[in-house]
User: Fold this.
Amino acid sequence: MCSSRSDPVPELPAPLSLGIDIGGSKVAAGVVNAEGEVLEELRRATPGRDARAVEAVIGELVHELEGRHRIDSVGIGAAGWMDLPGSTVVFSPHLAWRDEPLRQNLEATLHRPVLVTNDADAAAWAEWRFGAGRGRDRMVMLTLGTGIGGALVIDGRVERGSFGMAGEFGHQIIMPGGHRCECGNRGCWEQYASGNALGREGRELARKHSPMAAGLLAAANGRPKNITGSVVTALALEGEATAQELVAEVGEWLGLGIANLAAALDPALFVIGGGLSAAGELLLDPTRRAYLRNLTGRGYRQEALIMKAQLGPSAGLVGAADLARTQQRPLERYRR
Amino acid sequence: MCSSRSDPVPELPAPLSLGIDIGGSKVAAGVVNAEGEVLEELRRATPGRDARAVEAVIGELVHELEGRHRIDSVGIGAAGWMDLPGSTVVFSPHLAWRDEPLRQNLEATLHRPVLVTNDADAAAWAEWRFGAGRGRDRMVMLTLGTGIGGALVIDGRVERGSFGMAGEFGHQIIMPGGHRCECGNRGCWEQYASGNALGREGRELARKHSPMAAGLLAAANGRPKNITGSVVTALALEGEATAQELVAEVGEWLGLGIANLAAALDPALFVIGGGLSAAGELLLDPTRRAYLRNLTGRGYRQEALIMKAQLGPSAGLVGAADLARTQQRPLERYRR
Assistant:
């Protein structure tokens, strides 16, 4: 509505946002610009399960980065279930938090407003804005690590449900009476299709003294308990046959669950991120085969693509930063 | 913007819409007003699985009702999966249709534009507009009959996915390797939580010559094959103990699947309709118990309500009629 100004306006640096990703094993903080680029990133180990200690680490990270960048907004993605206003982590299976007033505590620590969201929602937002999901009307993101982080983007909006808990696809029960899950149930999908599941299968094979586990044990100094999802993934990428079989098995469970989500949600795209996605086609090829074999109505419908995430382990902090930067603006601006 | 008119305006009858519900066993047609009331309803048996014969029956029903009512719009809900534009039934497990150009054929038969949608979407729309779902931001409707008709309403819009196939919750696999489904897969939820599942369990019990099946057999003239879901439901309502057990078992599977949908979608409300919902609390009480026992994060989250549908077997035609009547108007008008 204003007329153009004739006075020269000093050029201000583009606004930067600080994104923080709180996971079960690490806290990452990064300075992110409006194009989703990370200008600087810092990482710390998650200091146990005590929320106060985590908040202190976040305070240190923010203080350090604020000393070197002009930060306009701060967004946090945490591995827990947020209430709808984004103030309280009501339940976090992997951090062992319950009813944790994270936003209030962080605002007191940081002396500024912060946006708090679920880490999987943050990662999905990043992939939709800057990564594999660009231009898709509907996208499901699955972040495979300790468990399955899930999020659904519909028409430029992360769908959070009536109470803020939507997207917990990893806790859909796909094997009644199956493996026990951190959430308390049995048979949750993430007990079959996650980095943790891959590690568990490797350890079980080793403890059975199966000759097939020789390669796994050699990589773990002969100790089954050292066999983690990361160890098996790395071995698979080196060509070790048993590790590749285990990754493929996890891919089959992943594809089955994706077929279930396609039945329910029919998105155009599934994006697979998280540590386990480093296995690439060793994981995604069996995933796609199992998806197509289990998809209801197969051969008579359009099929969603299954793609690897593009933003890597920084997706969570990039998404948290971008959500914080854009939250005050009409969402329509970000629709495609 | 217009000033009020001083000339008297002749009062026109409120516009009426004709809704048609094509199921595996019956075709129902009804004249519906803007309040969702059915002014007249006709029913015919579905004439086998031939699409031409079904279209002919629809032609007769519309012709008869048009003779007695001023119809402004026609909407069809069919037990099949529509493409996104609503022109083709791409797959119908229970009608055995594939790539059926239903809208084009009906427009040729009826000489007018028609709206074609999925029957479960239509029923959900009716319950959201006029029934159990009024005032809820998010609602999942499950119509329990031959299978599970599913639909999700988000903020006054039926969520259809990227390609039109969303809401097929009944084909989520909850028991890998389980019962074979009409869709071709094994272990689909609707093989455990539907009227057909209830009938199958009753027949199996009778064929095992279990003394527990005496009541079921007596109601079926001693012939196991006569034991259907409706027979078991009616017996349960009369107080027969085995029938009540079987209904409760189906309720437990229903509750498990609802817990899965709550994990994924977190709606405020689940509405249970279809023939099996006639069992009322005999079904819904065990459903709610199983839902609460299997809900991930239970005790730390808001829980969705599980309610019986309010519009009965006419919900599908009411919803199809109302979608046809309102489809040309901005959806925002119907947001609450």
